[in-house]
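no rush on this but wanted to send it before i forget. theres a chain ive been looking at and ive put its sequence and its fold in token form underneath. please have a look and point out which stretches look like helix strand or loop to you. thanks a lot i owe you, the record is right below:
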Amino acid sequence: MHNARQTGWKQYAAAVLALALLLGCALFQAPTKAAPAPQDILRLHIIASSDGEEDQRVKLAVRDAIVARFGPLFSGAADRQAACALAEKELSAIEETARQELARQGRPQQVRASLSVEHFPSRLYDGVIYPEGEYQALRVVLGEGAGKNWWCVMFPPLCFADIREDPSCAGEDAAQQAQDRPAGNLQFRSYLQEKWSDLWGWL
């Protein structure tokens, strides 16, 4: 009789915890918003010369220099077409700004800025999922251009505000998978998985 009651209690506890886990997963999914259509977006990509520590460091220094000089200009663009026109007009100035910053950092390198349509994988940026597809992009290639890139949404002008608020916020390429999913959500899921494993061990 005692064993039957204990078994019944364990089954009841398992059902309650399973329901709590399901509700937790539903409630704690990372919130996402609808992304603008790809044809309404201009992305900024700054590609480092290599994955070496110094090349990655100066990549972010170049980012800061470009944002400081051109952020206000691009923030005033009325639409993506206007932002693209500005980018095309300022390509030489963007290259020069990058070269000056690289020299200031003691890492002079070749710089190539271009405006092109590129294919990009799906990415989560600022709570928005940007689906895989073709995007207009302003690419600033440093040196050999063989390193991880920093990227943001240049229009609508999201990255300029993001960097001013938090200099560490940066989108990275496929090598930086942590950017694709929110850390808080991953931690919560790990907690749920741990408790689920504990329950099965207890049963």
Confidence is low (pLDDT under 50) at residues 25-31, 164-170, 173-192. The longest strand covers residues 111-120.
